[in-house]
Amino acid sequence: MSLIEVLISVAILATVLTVLAGNVFTLSVVRQVAKEEAIVQEVLTNLIERVQGENLANLGSRNSSQSHLNAWSWHRRVQPRWPETTLGVIPPMTEETPTAPVPAIADDTNVQPFTNYLLPVYDSSVPPRLISPGLLAQRSGIRDLRVYLEYYRQNVILSAMLDATEPHRTWKEITEGTGAYAGRNDLLYPDDLDGDNAMNLAQETNAAVIIRAVVIWTSRDGGIRTRELTLARRQ
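and the corresponding structure tokens:
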């Protein structure tokens, strides 16, 4: 075999190995993305099942007597509309680990920031009480996983959708608070736990409530992905 033939063979082998390495990496990314999607779907399903099984009057409420067990159902908006709350915007549920000591639940206001964790968090009472039951028993392995839960007034939404020529676009504008629905807070329930504008679904004795669960995360492929489920609840 001549030197030229050897060089050609080496070049071909290098090309084949490069292609194989690229395929292996691509397959690995695809597998990781598929795994992420499965976990996110499980989180969404678990959240929706809890929404369906909970007493409607308890959803979104602030109930210290139950060790903040309703914190998972608080109105956590992707696009907050009620910045006047003194507690600040209610953050999404995440897998972040608390960096500050968790106080006893007797200190109600100070416990509040620790109720947005997907993983279990206990307060410093004796014995400790669960203040953030969350939706996961262990870490998901998904980067920047954020879970939101939004509540909309069904009767107002229905009127807007019936008048819409492009329902998909209308729904997008409603959820984002843009376009014709910028500043239309009458479409949704307040996301304020501080009392002045606290959500109280117990008052909705006849009307249905539209509930939208949203999960946003940074995927293994580098993109930002979003998945959501929507349902309606009635007393």
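(Above: one complete record from the training split.) Residues 7 and 109 are 73 Å apart (CA to CA).
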